[in-house]
Amino acid sequence: MQRKLSILFPILSILASMLVIQGGASLAKSLFPLIGPSGTTSLRLIFSALILMIIFRPWRRRISRKQFLTLGCYGLFLGGMNYLFYLAIARIPLGIAVALEFTGPLAVALFSSKRLIDFLWVAIVVTGLLCLLPIAKLSTPLDLTGAFFALAAGACWAGYILFGQKAGDDIHGGTAVSIGMLFAAIVYAPIGLIQMSSSPFLMQALPIGIAVAVLSSALPYSLEMIALKDLSRSTFSILMSLEPVFAALSGYLFLHENLSGMQIFAVLLIIVASAGTAITSRGRAELPQS
Q: b/e string for 95-118 if b means 16 or more Cβ within 10 A?
C-alpha cells in the first residue's frame, strides 16, 4: 500500500504539472488581445527569469566561459520556443499547437536510433501531420502560418533539449534553467516590450503576466523535479506524451476551442508515436520535460 502511494504521488505531480502549464497557456492566450503574443512572451520570460533567479540564485556558482556559451544557446532556443509557440496559438487551437510542437522532441528521440520499430513511429507521426496540415486532401482546414510557427517551436524545443542536456552534464539543473531563462529574456523580451510600450492595457496585463510566468515555468518545473525523483525517465516520458490531451482539454474548457474529428484523430496519432517512442527507447534519448 505504501509503495503504491509513493508511486502515485509523483504521477499526480506530473499530471498536475501538465494541467498547470496548459492552464497557463490558456491564460496567456487571453492576454493576446491586450498586448499581443510578443508582449505576452516578454512578460512570461521576464517574470520567469526573476522567479527562477530568486529561487536558484545561480550567482553563487562558478561558471566557465564555455558553459556560458552553452547556456546562451540553451536560452536562445528556450526563448524561441516560447515566442514561436505563442505566435502559433494566436492562430491555431492550443491542442493542435502542442501536438505539432511535440515533433521536435520526437525527432530528437527518433534520430538517436535506427531500429526498425522507430520507422513505425515516424510513419505514425507523418500520418498525423498529414491529417493536421492543409497540404493533403485528408487534412482539415488549419491556418498554415500558425502550423508553421508550431513546428518551428518544435525545432526550438529540439535545440533546447540538446543544449539543455549538454548544460546539465556539469551544471546544476536549477542553475542552468535560471541562467537560460535570463538569456531568453534578454534576447526576446525587447521585441514585446516595444509593442507593450504603446498598449493602454499594460498595467492590467502585468498581474496576469506574473500568473502566466508562475503557471508556465516556476510551478510546473518544480512539480516535474518532484516527479523525476521517483519516476524513471521512461515512465516520465510516457506520461508527458499525454500533454496534447491536456492542451486540447484546456483549450476546450477555457478558450472554447473545438477540434474536428480528424484533428482529434491526428493529435491521438502523435500521442501514440510519442508514447511508443518512450516505451521502446531502452536507454537512448527520451522525450524530456518541456
A: bbbbbbbbbbbbbbbbeebeeeeb
Name the CA dihedral angle for 112, 116, 117, 118, rounded to a multiple of 10 degrees.
30
At CA 51, angle to CA 47 and CA 52, rounded to 5? 115
| pLDDT tens, residue by residue, 250-269 | 999 989 998 888 889 989 99
Name, in order, each residue with C-beta under 8 angstroms of 169's C-beta and a sequence gap of 6 or more. none
Angle at 157 between CA 142 and CA 30, to 5 degrees: 55
Determine the pLDDT at residue 228.
63
Give the residue from 150, 143, 17, 144 showing the smallest Cα distance to 95.
150
What is the tens place of the pLDDT at every residue in 5-64?
Answer: 566 777 888 888 889 999 999 999 999 998 999 999 999 999 999 998 998 888 887 777
Does residue 169 contact residue 9 with C-beta atoms inside 8 Å? no
Residues 180-218: pLDDT tens digits? 899 999 999 998 888 776 777 778 888 999 999 999 887
CB 75 within 8 A of CB 175: no
pTM of the predicted structure, to 2 decimals: 0.87
Q: Which amino acid is at 242?
A: L
* CA pair distance 139, 141, nearest whole angstrom: 7
Q: Which three cell numbers stand for residue 289?
A: 520535460
Between helix 103-111 and helix 144-168 the angle, nearest 10°, is 50
Could you list the beta-strand ranges (E) of the chain.
none
Total number of residues shown for the chain: 290
Within 13 A of 162's CA, how many CA atoms are on the CB side?
16
Residue with cell 500533454: 243
